[in-house]
Amino acid sequence: MHAITGSGWIEVISGSMFSGKTEELLRRLRRAEIAGQEIAVFTPALDDRYGETTIGTHNGRSWEASVVGNEGERPWDILDDLNGEMVVAIDEANFFSDALVDACQALAEDDRRVIVSGTDQTYRGEPFDPLPDLMAVAEYVDKLQAICAVCGEPATRNQRLIEGEPAHADDPTILVGAEESYQARCRSCHVLRRD
Ligand SMILES: Nc1ncnc2c1ncn2[C@@H]1O[C@H](COP(=O)(O)OP(=O)(O)O)[C@@H](O)[C@H]1O
Ligand SMILES: Cc1cn([C@H]2C[C@H](O)[C@@H](COP(=O)(O)O)O2)c(=O)[nH]c1=O
Ligand SMILES: [Zn+2]
User: Fold this and answer.
1) Cβ–Cβ contacts within 10 Å for residue 88, how many?
2) pTM above 0.90, yes or no
3) Residue 74 has pLDDT above 90, yes or no
4) Which of 26, 49, 93, 175 could be a cystine partner for 118, CB 3.0 to 4.6 Å?
5) Residues with catalytic annotation?
């Protein structure tokens, strides 16, 4: 909590896939651990890429986490699962419903430090709920960039590839995956099929 007011706050770490969001989240958690703070980490049930009860980076680092809900529908479970921890981290926020915003607000109003990580754009390049609303209510927002897999410029977009070809605009928004289905790309190199 803030030293003077005693109040909590929300930190959002966002940006494209592969931009280092989870690395940055783990860096902040390591520092909180060194400071002797109690930490609770949550990940949605939908993302089982790194094993059900861990959050992981694209380069192999991980941290134990509690799995929340079925298909990310139950962000209020986070409040029920807490045991006095004052640092609460939530990875893959893009898989949660809009209810995550109010749940994070409630945690911050309960004087906790809330660190939320998630990609802010769908593969179509549109805002990925609930990240835009979380970024609006957060005290601190960091938007990270990866390296464009095509041209090497900073990347802000998520290129979905299906069998190596750009995905169609009508495809479902949710597709759990990593290098096999997605690349980080810049605005110029991002492609969406509309035929
Ligand atoms: N195109 C890329 N740009 C930057 N880093 C990449 C790229 N592809 C793979 N990586 C690796 O991914 C790591 C970041 O992983 P991670 O923290 O899991 O990202 P995020 O959570 O944003 O998807 C980088 O340190 C790097 O090793
Ligand atoms: C763009 C986009 C992404 N996803 C999924 C793919 C991954 O499972 C996560 C993002 O993971 P990261 O830690 O940020 O690398 O989200 C999706 O379902 N739909 C999309 O449009
Ligand atoms: Zn590019």
Assistant:
1) 26
2) yes
3) no
4) 93
5) 92
